[in-house]
Design a protein that fits this description.
Elements lengths: L1 E4 L5 H14 L9 E5 L2 H17 L8 E5 H11 L11 E2 L2 H18 L14 H7 L3 H19 L4 H10 L5 H20 L1 E2 L1 H14 L1 H10 L2 E4 L7 H11 L7 E5 L15 H9 L3 E4 L1 E2 L4 H17 L15 E2 L16 E3 L6 H18 L5 E5 L2 H14 L5 E3 L4 H18 L4 H11 L7 H15 L4 H5 L19 H17 L4 H12 L3 H20 L5 H12 L23 E5 L8 E6 L29 H13 L10 H22 L2 E7 L13 H12 L5
Parallel strand pairs: 1-7, 1-8, 2-3, 2-6, 4-5, 6-7, 9-10, 11-16, 12-14, 12-15, 13-14, 15-16
Helix pairs in contact: 1-2, 3-9, 4-6, 4-8, 6-8, 6-24, 7-8, 8-24, 9-11, 13-26, 16-17, 16-22, 16-23, 17-18, 21-22, 24-25
């Protein structure tokens, strides 16, 4: 059975009730279970709670008769059964994404060192030597790490080993620079995993499929154990996931495989091997297919807005190849007697801002608006959705600096994480470079960070910090000789700063003495001196544990290398490694406060009022003249999308059904796919709102961005139909 469900239609509720009714029906034997497969760990928790609740209502034990797993959890169960079949020790390890990224980064830098000019073929020819050298410091390695990530995942999705790819490269008719680079990095990456006796998440899924194909007795046992398979969020399924579940269902049991999802909420295609077309094809070919059209989440005005977007995309989008980006399912309000009635429509609660705003002005306008709204609605929920984490961070910063609102950040990292990590980074950076008076002065501000809320006291902190910058050699301050004591040379007008400087000197000497400790113990020592709140101490404890794990895994890493990990976290470049991305987040826990998150992370959530920022031609392009794409880097010639071109070269090599590689085709196709995905992201953003919706746009960093074509279509529709909102 294939089920297409609109946003807010109750997919989890429906599948949970189905699982409970199957268990209650008596059709299962004692050793059988209903298998529920979902996307993320938080959904595992939601399903378990809902199914157990239904079972209790039916008078049954709440924990028997079902198993809920993510795909990775299911694959892990299978591989543990017969790890020997795929050459793994029974005690094999699974590396997390952070460690996998570290291996890829090392492999990329190693490749660049051995092939310093190979990538020049793709760089613009008018770059100066200085600019070219600068690119090799960070921007180019970052791009190649991104390519390596997608290349390796795609290769594993095709079951292609480094050796197989290498053999195809050698027999290819044309030279493929990107495929060769990817294969080389892939080979180093895989050898590194094998050396650790470890697998990554993609390996885990591949191995699970291989084991099911090789061990028919295990497969038959699992088929008997799980006679019913219920799959949630199937729009985000990959080909490998489909193959695994298809094997488990078996040809004779396929009527007991239920796949539920919303093709219009497939917004992870660019980041994973997910393919929303798989669900659409399955729904069309299934013995039964159904639509869950009713949703009680939003007002009819918001529902009409989402439905109009679907209609417009299907019939009027200027890019013909994007017109099937949204499945032609319409959201239907719930009937009058439904347990979840739609919120009452209030005229004027959809605001589409036509006015051009600068990025800075847009943040100010939204900030002022949310302050007024929260004052009038202290018992309601509100969210600001941004296209990227950095934009969300800027929005949060504005609210903190210019209003009395403390936002709830649901981004890569929270402000507390960034501030705690940033403080540690400043101190550790000084300990690495103790001859820097500038870094010493920065440490003083961290040491006196608690005084920042007192303007008068903070002025004195800044004055003391400025004074420390004037020390030509910090040793003159910390360990002076008989005739070179810097403290004694301080002008009489600044003598009031001496007590703090003397205390600071003792603290620095203590920290320098502690720098011989293992890095985790050093971090705990620093934290005990500068942090006081439970949240800061908890975060610093997790940071210390993380650094301890890193130093154990990489005994050859020096202090500066370990410090780089903390710098990435402080810059908001990655989510916090100690906090699962699947932690429960409930908007109802934050009534009267504003949540700031990305449109991607908002999927599955809902708020009374939703702001969507930056609905411009950069964040929601349509592949029209003047549109730019984030994957096309300014320093790459001919506006090529190198990640897309590298995957095209790879797929040409490993998939005999594909046409020969032609440079530029993949870039064009990637643009179309990105346009399609961003249309779905706009749809998801709109359908997060229950009662009120505000959408704005800005003219971008260069001032050349325009309203997204889809957003302009919504504006035109509202202007011609004043009764809709």
């Amino acid at each position: 059975m294939g089920v297409s469900a609109v946003p807010g239609s109750g997919k989890t509720w429906t599948l949970s009730l189905l699982a409970a009714e199957l268990i209650n029906s008596g059709i299962l034997s004692e050793d059988q279970e209903v298998l529920v497969v979902t996307l993320v760990n938080s959904a595992v928790y939601n399903f378990s709670i809902r199914i157990s609740s239904f079972l209790q209502e039916m008078g049954l034990l709440p924990s028997l008769g079902y198993r809920v797993r993510t795909l990775h959890g299911l694959a892990h169960d299978i591989v543990r059964e017969r790890s020997d079949l795929v050459g793994l020790d029974s005690k094999f390890q699974i590396i997390d994404e952070r460690e996998a990224e570290r291996i890829r980064v090392d492999a990329v830098y190693d490749w660049l060192k051995k092939n310093p000019s190979a990538i020049n073929y793709y760089l613009k020819t008018d770059l100066t030597e200085k600019k070219r050298a600068s690119l090799y410091q960070k921007q180019l390695p970052d791009l190649l790490v991104n390519i390596a990530n997608q290349y390796i995942r795609t290769a594993k999705n095709y079951h292609a080993t480094p050796a197989f790819i290498d053999s195809r490269i050698k027999s290819a008719q044309v030279k493929m620079v990107l495929a060769e680079m990817g294969a080389s990095i892939f080979s180093v990456y895989q050898r590194s995993l094998e050396y650790r006796g470890a697998v990554d998440f993609d390996d885990l899924i591949n191995h699970a499929l291989r084991i099911l194909q090789l061990d028919s007795s295990l497969l038959n046992r699992l088929r008997s154990q799980w006679p019913f398979i219920l799959e949630d969020e199937a729009q985000d399924s990959s080909l490998l996931q489909q193959k695994i579940l298809s094997l488990l269902a078996g040809s004779e049991n396929k009527q007991n495989w239920v796949r539920v999802g919303d093709p219009n909420q497939a917004i992870y295609e660019s980041f994973t091997t997910a393919d929303p077309k798989l669900l659409q094809i399955f729904i069309e070919q299934a013995d039964q297919n159904h639509v869950l059209p009713n949703s009680g989440r939003s007002t009819e005005a918001i529902i009409n807005t989402a439905n109009y977007l679907v209609d417009w995309v299907n019939t009027e989008h200027p890019q013909l190849q994007a017109r099937d980006a949204l499945y032609p399912n319409k959201i239907v309000p719930t009937p009058p007697d439904d347990l979840q009635p739609n919120p009452v429509d209030i005229p004027g609660q959809i605001h589409l801002f036509e006015k051009s705003l600068t990025p800075e002005k847009e943040i100010q306008v939204i900030g002022d608006s949310v302050v007024k709204w929260l004052q009038a609605n202290p018992d309601k929920t509100v969210a600001i959705l941004t296209p990227r984490n950095d934009r969300g961070k800027r929005m949060a910063g504005y609210l903190r600096e210019n209003t009395n609102i403390e936002p709830i950040e649901y981004l890569n990292t929270t402000l507390a994480t960034r501030k705690t990590t940033g403080s540690l980074v400043i101190i550790l950076s000084y300990l690495v470079d103790p001859n820097s008076s500038t870094k010493l002065a920065a440490v003083f501000k961290v040491w006196r960070r608690d005084l920042k809320t007192n303007p008068e006291a903070w002025l004195q902190v800044q004055a003391t910090s400025d004074l420390l910058k004037s020390v030509q050699n910090p040793e003159l301050f910390l360990s002076p000789g008989p005739s070179s004591a810097w403290l004694s040379s301080i002008d009489d007008s600044k003598r009031d700063l001496l007590p703090a400087l003397i205390e600071f000197k003792d603290t620095i000497l203590k920290w320098q003495g502690a720098s011989i400790l293992p890095i985790d113990q050093l971090i705990l020592t620093l934290s005990s001196d500068i942090f006081h709140t439970p949240e800061e101490l908890s975060i610093s404890y997790k940071i210390a544990n993380f650094q301890k794990q890193l130093s154990r895994q990489h005994p050859d890493w020096d202090f500066p290398t370990l410090l780089d990990e903390l710098k990435s976290l402080a810059r908001n470049e990655r989510r916090f490694f100690s906090i699962s991305e699947d932690n429960q987040f409930n908007p109802e826990d934050h009534k009267g406060k504003v949540v700031i998150t990305t449109a991607h992370k908002a999927k599955g959530l809902e708020w009374d009022r939703v702001y969507l920022l930056s609905a411009n031609s950069y964040n929601f392009p349509s592949n029209l003249p003047g549109d730019s794409f984030i994957s096309e880097r300014w320093f790459i010639r001919d506006e090529l999308n190198l990640p897309a071109e590298s995957l095209a070269q790879l797929i040409t090599l490993v998939d005999d059904s594909k046409a020969d590689y032609l440079e530029g085709d993949a870039t064009y196709q990637s643009r179309i796919e990105y346009v399609r995905e961003r249309l779905r992201l706009l749809y998801v953003s709109i359908t997060r709102a229950k009662q009120e919706l505000v959408i704005t746009w800005n003219n971008g960093r260069t001032g050349k961005s325009t309203p997204a074509v889809a957003f302009q279509a919504l504006i035109d529709h509202f202007n011609s139909n004043s009764d809709t909102g």
